[in-house]
Amino acid sequence: MKRRNVLVGALAAFVSACNEVSETSVFRNIVDGAQSWHRGLHRALGFGRITMAPEFSPSEISPFFRGNGSLDVNTEAYRKAEAEGFANWRLSVTGLVDNELSLSLADIRALPQRTQITRHDCVEGWSAIGQWTGPQLSHVLEAAGVQDSARFAVFRCADTLGGSAYYESVDLDDAYHPQTIIAHALNGQPLPVLNGAPLRMRIERQLGYKHAKYLTGIELVDSLTPIAGGKGGYWEDRAGYQWYAGI
Ligand SMILES: Nc1nc2c(c(=O)[nH]1)N[C@H]1C(S)=C(S)[C@@H](COP(=O)(O)O)O[C@H]1N2
Ligand SMILES: [Mo]
């Protein structure tokens, strides 16, 4: 009985959140997609890994959230995008989906938002607490219509490190996790360039290197083997970092 109430409550909240978004075609598409809620809700109710990362209070936010890895993207295209306030940035959703998406920053900001204050832990031995805002990746995936054969979400980034594109990936449990968001704001401000402007992933139950910055694309795949070095991420391919970087 209790479980049932949880389900009904979660669904009601989900539907009312969806009803608040405006009527333009991309939102219509997202909301229609969101109504096939089975997978996300199924996972959220405990058929996947549902542990939540700890969340903190505003007084615990670090005064400065340092940058790590790429601190900027040194391309003409990125300089132009920055000068335009990232108004023309697109995030693509491709691969094993029924509807490929190309979302603008305005689209991302107009979706139902989640704000969370979490601690970022880098393997290099530092941590910082920040408040992140953005839509849950699950909403975007529902709109795209993830096909049954998909097993991983791959995150494509605009930057290169040592000449190779940064990328990362997670399984669908982490992709649909409620704290997995596409963040466009840090501490209530647009994401600084240092921290991955205009969009970066937050994958809160995993180490820092999973949180792809300068996000340009999300690709649904059934295998990581054909991608780059085949280990599912930039550092996994090079330094032997674990692909599942749970904390
Ligand atoms: N695109 C991209 N994403 C990235 C990196 C990077 O170099 N490029 N570095 C990773 C590492 S190791 C960490 S700890 C975090 C750092 O995020 P921050 O710069 O906001 O502190 O981003 C991760 N995501
Ligand atoms: Mo890191």
UniProtKB/TrEMBL annotation:
Superkingdom: Bacteria
Pfam families: Oxidored_molyb
Domain Oxidoreductase molybdopterin-binding: 87-222
Protein name as catalogued: Molybdopterin-binding protein
Upper lineage: Bacteria, Pseudomonadati, Pseudomonadota, Alphaproteobacteria, Sphingomonadales
